[in-house]
Amino acid sequence: MTTEGDHTIGRWLRDRASADPHRVAIDDRGVLVDYATLYARASSLADTLGGAGYGSGARICTVSGNSVDHVVAFFACALLGAAFVPLSWRLTPAELAELLRRSRADLVLIEEEHSSLASEALRLFASGASASTALPRCAPLGSVGIEQQAPRALFVRERRAPQSDDPLLVIYTSGSEAAPKGVVLTHASCFWNNLALSQAMPMSRDDVVLAILPQHHVAAWNVQPLLAWWVGATVVLERSFQPERALQLIQERRVTTVMGVPTQYRMLLDVPHLDRFDLSSLRRVVVGGATTPRDLAESWAARGVHLTQGYGLTEAAPNVLFLRPEDLPANPEAIGRPYPTVDTCIVDPDSGLVLEGAAAGELWVRGPSLFAGYLDDDEATERAMSDGWLRTGDLVARDAHGVHRVIDRLKNIYVSGGENVAPAEVEFALTAHPLVEEASVVAVPDPVWGERGFAFVVTREPLSADELLAFARTRIASFKLPARVEFVAELPRSTIEKVARTRLQDLAMKLCGVAEVGTQHNAQTLVDPAQNPKTKGKAHA
Q: Would you list the domain boundaries of the chain?
């Protein structure tokens, strides 16, 4: 089968298999797969699925870790015109069942390692489904499963050549702020995203990419791997992130480029005797998911590894802004300028006016890589868009040179005594203390001030809350200081190591509910509201 249209993704693999059939496309735990083999398997699976009635517009969910089999399924969907919907194996059975319900899948492909999770999720889905609900077909993933035989589709769909505006990749958001939503990325979305990436961070057939992010996340496809398969590079595919093993792979496979989140790069630095690993092959190290702390960037630069900061979100496929390594010293904690083909503007959240020059407000994004909408949720799509612009929900500041930095999520901003407080700013002040490893601040209700900050802090060595707050007071105004501090062993994480703020919010609320006034309960009331002269006499939010 062949693909048509300028922007379809399946043709990338077809063209590369023709030009470089024997080049290694994937190194999956030492098993090498060349481009000819990868295309042959994907094309054969597309034919198998098409013959079973899964045509254009089919939704094919997966429950799988990173693997060649998973990549084969992705490209088969690209060649078929079906939507590939990778679901997270990190979810509980109940959470996974909910996503299966929301996705209205035609077929679920299940990796053996996750068969128990998937089976329980399907059981829960079936038990809660109405009599009219169609349950998806299921099959094992891989060469001895779906690639051998596909169950007949319940609803037979027409098979036609894929088009640029066909849904290709549906990624569910983490749900840290609300119920998860399926972000629909078309072939064109992925094409333009990777074209912009190739211009901002060029890649050649001689590159070796280390892929360490889980493939239920958009960056595991659209930040490096898909571009690598477009240009004929090799992707070293890892099942999970193990710091010492990652360093060994960089050394042994002569990895040239990798993308990760700040937590992962911090964990790599913490590997004992780091200097025993040869990292000289690295040419581009990309950071996403959060802003790079200055000390982390400086620690890697001292080892000759310079970090490239990026910013994006799933709805933008995901790339929006990037900062070249040479710009980092003059712009610490910055996230950079727009990618090629991406337009941005800053909008005042209160007035809705577009702000010019140096300004702070909500970041809006426009361009051909934007998503086609949320799966089966027109209302949510309409809320996210404004006249072709995506409202990111991120509060950013842009300097006179067009360089952006993130202030916080708009929905994370809370109002204390009439003053807006950005948790990210408070977290930055807390983590500046040499004994603090991480900090996360959430808001809790306060009968006097409306809302107050509650800080969860991870320290390298014992530290008193009084000492920490005294330190932070020299960096931020008193009204921004958290009213309570809870020292914890670690912060809970969600997708790609992002802090799970919803879980921290629930814990903070619980602690505030059980702790009586004047008691500490491990969380200490430390800030006297009367110390804040800016809020005296003001109406409370």
A: 10-397, 413-535
| Dihedral sign computed on CA atoms, order 251, 253, 258, 262 | negative
The dotted CATH code for 10-397 is 3.40.50.12780
Structure-token pair, residue 538? 């003001």
Nearest-angstrom CA–CA distance, 461 and 27:
40
Using DSSP's 3-state secondary structure scheme, residue 106 falls into coil
Distance CA 159, CA 80 (A): 7
* DSSP assignments along 150-163, one per residue: -PPPSS--------
Tell me the whole-structure pTM to 2 decimals.
0.82
Question: How many CB atoms neighbour CB 513 within 10 A?
Answer: 8
Helix, strand or coil, per DSSP, at residue 227? helix
Residue 14: strand pairing partners: none
- CA distances for 371 relative to 34, 168, 245, angstroms: 31, 11, 35
Between helices 262-269 and 243-253, what is the axis angle to 10°?
80
CATH of domain 413-535: 3.30.300.30
Amino acid at 233: A
- The model's pLDDT over 158-211, given as tens digits with 9 standing for 90+, comes to 999 999 999 999 999 864 445 789 999 999 999 999 999 999 999 999 999 999
Q: Alpha-carbon distance 118 to 214, whole Å?
A: 17
DSSP state, residue 129? S
Residue ranges of the alpha helices (H) in 111-205?
A: 115-128, 187-200
Q: State the amino acid at position 126 in one-letter form.
A: A
Could you write out the DSSP letters of every residue in 303-339? TT--EEEEEE-GGGSSEEEEE-GGGTTTSTT--BEEP
